[in-house]
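User: I'm putting together notes for a lab meeting next week and I want to include a structural view of one of the chains we've been expressing. I don't have a solved structure, so I'd like a prediction I can at least talk through. The sequence is below, exactly as it appears in our construct file.
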Amino acid sequence: MKHAEGTIKKVHVLRIEPGEDVLLSIQQFCDEHHILSGIILSGIGSLDGCTFFDPQEMPGKPGLYGYVTPISKPTPIELVGLNGIVCGEADGKAAPHIHACFADAEGNEYGGHLKEGNRVLVTVELAIAELSGLRMSRKLDPVKAVPVLFPESDQ
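Assistant: Thanks for the context. Below is the predicted structure for the 155-residue chain, given as structure tokens.
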């Protein structure tokens, strides 16, 4: 287990507007406000369709699983939950890692790893907690061969 402690420095509340890409908007906001360690506390809204990843078996790949084929639901859909973390890249840019839950008009639920291309239908409202006292980064896990969280104390 990897562990680091920190505190909430500030909470940012955002409204992402119709037509904007959810992931790219969060990325841009975090870059502009220099948020390199954060938590997506809450996110709700509606999207003009959704695209996400779920793990797939990949025989021959170290760890045997990965995120390869996107899943798409092209009709208007409710964003019932958004959560994740914001890490810092070596180049100083923010790297959000976000998962989302969706519900269609029939009440069917879907969810997984959020990717680019999810555009706001009416609104997306979210809160990001900016953290201090620790550094969060994602590095390649040598066994699973996927990027994973590496939290470190800021000392």
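A couple of points you could mention at the meeting. The CA atoms of residues 56 and 101 lie 18 Å apart. The two ends are 19 Å apart (CA to CA).

User: Perfect, that's what I needed.
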